[in-house]
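Hi F.,

I've been meaning to write this up properly since the lab meeting, where we talked about keeping a consistent format for the predictions we share between groups. The idea is simple: the sequence comes first, exactly as it goes in, then the structure tokens exactly as they come out, then a line or two of notes. No screenshots and no reformatting. I'm using this chain as the first example so we have something concrete to point to.
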Amino acid sequence: MNTTTNAVFMTCKACNRRSLETQWRDNHYVCPICGSLRPISANYRLSLLMDKGSIKELNKDMTAKDPLNFPGYQEKLNHQEEKTGLSEAAVTVAGTIGRFPVVAIVLDSRFFMGSMSSIVGEKVTSAIEYATKHHRPLIIFSASGGARMQEGIYSLMQMAKTADAIEEFSRRGGLYISYLTHPTTGGVTASFATLGDITLAEPNALVGFAGPRVIEQTIGKKLPKGFQRSEYLESHGFVDKIVPRSEMRDTIIHLLTLHNQKKSILPGGLKFA
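Output, unedited:
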């Protein structure tokens, strides 16, 4: 008896080799051959991280705006919303991880490369304030090309706004775990992404302010091999640990468990339910 298998293959953009789509899925969309990471959606990352059925989306009504009436920008926003099913590049949720209540923020690189707009800044700030009010640990997964140029100063102002919210959260004794994914650059790197109490990163993630080509052109020198990649940053103390997607949930649960051994950091500070 002959059977026909309708196998679906995916091609890795890094090594240009094909693997079964089921292999990619089972490997959390990391190339089974070379280990290169494929971008994943915010909702998929949350499904890998959060306890099933625990997610409550925050600030869902905050949608992308065009404050400067920038030519063609609204049409591009409409296209991004249609393509991704998102209303902005940031998804913010409350829920539990290993039964620990947390607030999680994920920047989705599929929406304008996760760039920071006025609404992204507002969603991030509002979620941080929610974590502060409810004494919950904060986990932010950054992925960004930087500030969104179509919003000018409104975008750049979010650097100070989000950093100030993190400062208040930390002053109240909150635990902030920053998880850097590929790529994390520009204004996001220069604000909340690099303010974590613990900084994790995915393998081979590009992390920096300006890109390596811009830096080389500016200083007129060749940069060290692997410069601005997460492994280089870990070896220089900028990143605490490289954590693959397959270990993401277990690592965060371990950190939350260690932190929970003390019921509070400061008077009135972080407490777990």
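Notes:
The longest strand covers residues 176-184.
The chain has two domains: 9-38, 40-260.

If this format works for you, I'll send the rest the same way.

G.
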